[in-house]
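About this split. The held-out portion is used to measure sequence recovery: a designer receives only the structure tokens and must propose an amino acid at every position. Recovery is the fraction of positions where the proposal matches the reference. Here is one held-out target exactly as it appears in the evaluation file.
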């Protein structure tokens, strides 16, 4: 089905940008949310608009309840509501557990987890009225198995899995599916701190012998958001080359 209204958070770069491109090329109307990377979001939007796709940018810090409300008001003034919500925005941080400050903890939790609560809450009334919706949240394999020196990130991403499962239970009868993907190592700005040697070691440990691309993650998100995926809900789809099984 094409022509749905799709909001992708954190779509200025990386996995979000690849996802925005995939949905736009499918004929959906895509809202590209960004926080700070206005130039990159506008460049993506211009490129896709040039080729005739229906895309626009919406700025908001999704860790702020007020900014999410304002973003949804802006969207409501443009279209009837959001049919497909992709909660992708996220940040990572590597720190020893004992070095994590209150501020670090709150920031990681609010950007990676509270943002999804705010966006789902704002998107759902329209989906419930329509008896149709697709929500795909981006977790991480560290939310499944725990990552050393990323306890706050792992806790937030495990929370994403919990939110996904519980919300799927609540919204099933409304024709709304809620799923998440749990990517492994994907080559984006988020993993740009890794050296060539790190990547080589990670490849070695991965059954497919490869590092993931933003497009690998985007295709998994796109699949879960399809109309035909109506009997799939509350699931965690690993996109990790078999690193975690
Ligand atoms: P990325 O290239 O660093 O991009 C992050 C995106 O999130 C950017 O578009 C950024 O927007 C946006 N963002 C950050 N904070 C935001 C906020 N407060 N409000 C709105 N947008 C915000 O990262 P990525 O690798 O594509 O990651 C995307 C998702 O995949 C994240 O949830 C991440 O945790 C998850 N993930 C990534 C990997 C990996 O290996 N890369 C693995 C597992 C899971 P601005 O630039 O505009 O601020």
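Reference sequence for scoring:
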């Amino acid at each position: 089905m094409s022509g749905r209204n799709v909001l992708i958070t954190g779509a200025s770069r990386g996995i979000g940008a690849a996802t925005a491109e995939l949905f736009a090329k499918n004929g959906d109307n895509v809202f590209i949310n960004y926080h700070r990377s206005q130039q990159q979001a506008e460049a993506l939007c211009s490129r896709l608009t040039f080729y005739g796709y229906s895309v626009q940018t919406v700025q908001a810090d999704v860790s702020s309840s007020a900014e999410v409300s304002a973003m949804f008001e802006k969207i409501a003034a443009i279209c009837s509501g959001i049919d497909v919500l992709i909660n992708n925005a996220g940040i990572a941080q590597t720190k020893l557990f004992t070095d994590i400050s209150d501020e670090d903890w709150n920031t990681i939790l609010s950007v990676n987890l509270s943002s999804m609560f705010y966006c789902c809450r704002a998107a759902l009334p329209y989906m419930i009225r329509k008896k149709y919706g697709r929500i795909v949240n981006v977790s991480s394999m560290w939310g499944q198995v725990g990552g050393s020196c990323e306890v706050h990130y792992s806790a937030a991403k495990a929370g994403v899995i919990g939110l996904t499962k519980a919300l799927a239970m609540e919204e099933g009868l409304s024709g709304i599916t809620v799923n998440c993907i749990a990517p492994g190592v994907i080559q984006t700005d988020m993993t740009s701190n890794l050296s060539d040697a790190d990547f080589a070691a990670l490849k070695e440990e991965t059954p497919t012998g490869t590092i993931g691309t933003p497009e690998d993650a985007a295709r998994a998100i796109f699949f879960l958001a399809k109309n035909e995926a109506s009997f799939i809900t509350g699931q965690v789809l690993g996109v990790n080359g078999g690193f975690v099984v």
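Annotator remark: Strands lie at 5-8, 29-34, 55-59, 84-87, 133-138, 176-183, 236-239.
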